[in-house]
Design a protein that fits this description.
Blueprint: H1 2-10, E1 17-33, E2 36-56, E3 59-67, H2 73-87, E4 92-93, H3 117-128, E5 137-154, E6 159-175, E7 182-190, H4 195-212, E8 216-217, E9 221-229, H5 232-236, H6 238-243, H7 246-250, E10 273-276, E11 298-302, E12 305-306, H8 313-318, E13 329-332, H9 339-342, E14 347-358, E15 364-375, E16 380-384, E17 387-391, H10 392-395, E18 400-401, E19 405-408, E20 411-414, E21 416-425
Parallel strand pairs: 8-16, 9-14, 13-20
Antiparallel strand pairs: 1-2, 1-5, 2-3, 3-4, 5-6, 6-7, 9-21, 10-11, 10-13, 11-12, 14-15, 15-16, 15-17, 17-21, 18-21, 19-20
Helix pairs in contact: 1-2
Length: about 425
């Protein structure tokens, strides 16, 4: 099919360059009511995305179309011809395509690689339906296993292929303990069957359901220490990766420029943040991005200073920066403060948000509190409801990263962050 597409492209007038992304996905899905299988199904899907480029003076236009294996030559030719026509109306400044790399690369090493998809689904089912000893249970769940093979071909000689693995768990946990029944829906992804991680994940979800029904309403506080924990922490750092984005700098939406120290005058921990091409259990681990750019680790921040930008070949080219490609795994250096030390003064420890948001342009962040622990200096209570919001540029002046670390899909870093004197909205 790829050869057929390339032949058609080479025969079309107005095609300056091209890129083909061919993704083959083998998928199995298991649906359960309580712990009983309700449906098991599988499918094999092949997606072919073709991007054609048409150059005019110093401009480069592009158009992307989706092709199917079932299409005949005439259908393919018509769609590609229409794409070339559409590309001529796009007037972006010129940028090159990825060049062929001579560097050796390896596939991500996942336990899913040699495991039958059905066996993997049943193994995950056995893990998540263990007895966790909590007053909560799983109402229903959906488990997905996706094995992907990506092949990227372009007119500059790139022709690479690699595998990716993706597991997804959608789970509804429920509890009848407390004033009223509680149901909580969550979705999590992973790239490896890590029993310890999955047990901790489901245990946390069941704990949230059990405790939420018994929790008291969150009380309003003008100034209280807030401790962020768990997987929501990776969302917090999207502000910093956003500020280091080549696209944000090209479009002049970034607040800082390369070389600036974002933590100048800070009395808290300084930021050391890197992007990692490969990270254990991450669905984003890959040797190349979708443009065919070879991926290598890159350090964005060192002691609070913005050292490097990151981004696609297009926007790094515009800024005359080294091309990093699109890398989504984030590693943050931990601090020296233990979580126990963070809890010496009254605090609100956020165990789960209903939703957490971060504005990558302004630094505003916050969320609705699904479940938290409140310590008033003497006693500890579980609370729910209410919300808080602040600005990262303000809280970073004093925030502290925990000495304890966590490794969750696409993020490695502190297990907790202490934000001092935050305003919390509640009763």
């Amino acid at each position: 099919m790829i050869d057929k597409i390339i032949k058609e492209l080479k025969g079309l007038k107005g095609v300056s360059a091209y890129k083909i992304l061919n993704t083959k996905t083998s998928s199995k899905e298991l649906f359960l009511i309580k712990d009983k299988a309700d449906m098991l199904r599988g499918k094999d899907v092949e997606d072919i995305l073709v991007t054609v480029y048409s150059d005019n003076e110093k401009n480069r236009g592009s158009s992307t179309v989706k092709l199917k294996k079932s299409m005949d030559n005439d259908e393919i030719a018509k769609i590609l011809k229409d794409a070339v026509y559409a590309a001529k109306f796009v007037k972006n400044p010129y940028y090159p395509l990825a060049k062929k790399s001579d560097k050796e690369y390896e596939n991500f090493n996942s336990s899913l690689k040699d495991m039958n998809e059905t066996d993997a689904l049943l193994r995950i089912k056995d893990i998540i339906y263990k007895d966790y000893g909590l007053d909560a249970s799983i109402n229903s769940s959906e488990i997905f296993i996706n094995k992907k093979n990506k092949r990227i071909v372009n007119s500059e000689g790139v022709d690479v292929s690699f595998d990716q693995y993706e597991g997804i768990i959608e789970v509804i946990t429920e509890s009848g303990v407390g004033k009223e029944p509680v149901e909580i829906y969550t979705l999590n992804s992973f790239a490896d069957i890590d029993e310890e991680y999955l047990e901790e994940l489901i245990g946390r979800r069941l704990f949230e359901a059990a405790e939420r029904g018994k929790a008291s309403p969150t009380k309003k506080s003008d100034k209280i220490n807030v401790i962020l924990t768990g997987e929501d922490i990776r969302t917090f750092f999207t502000f910093y990766t956003g500020q280091a984005s080549a696209r944000a700098h090209y479009e002049k939406t970034a607040l800082y420029k390369k070389g600036d120290n974002l933590f100048k005058g800070s009395k808290g921990d300084k930021l050391n943040l890197s992007l990692k091409a490969f990270m254990e259990n991450s669905i984003y681990s890959a040797p190349f991005d979708n443009d065919g750019v070879y991926l290598e680790d890159v350090k964005l921040y060192k002691d609070g200073k913005l050292k490097n930008l990151h981004g696609s070949l297009r926007f790094t080219h515009y800024l005359d920066e080294e091309t990093t490609g699109i890398i989504k795994n984030v590693e943050v250096q931990s601090g020296e403060t233990t979580i126990e030390e963070m809890k010496k003064k009254p605090y609100l420890e956020i165990l789960a948000f209903s939703d957490m948001f971060v504005d990558e342009l302004t630094g505003d962040f916050g969320g609705e509190i699904r479940l938290a622990r409140y310590f008033d200096g003497k006693d500890t209570f579980t609370v729910t409801g209410g919300s808080f919001s602040d600005n990262i540029l303000e809280v970073q002046k004093k925030f502290l990263f925990s000495k304890e670390t966590q490794l969750v899909p696409s993020f490695k870093g502190p297990k907790a962050i202490l934000l001092k004197n935050v305003k919390v909205l509640g009763e």
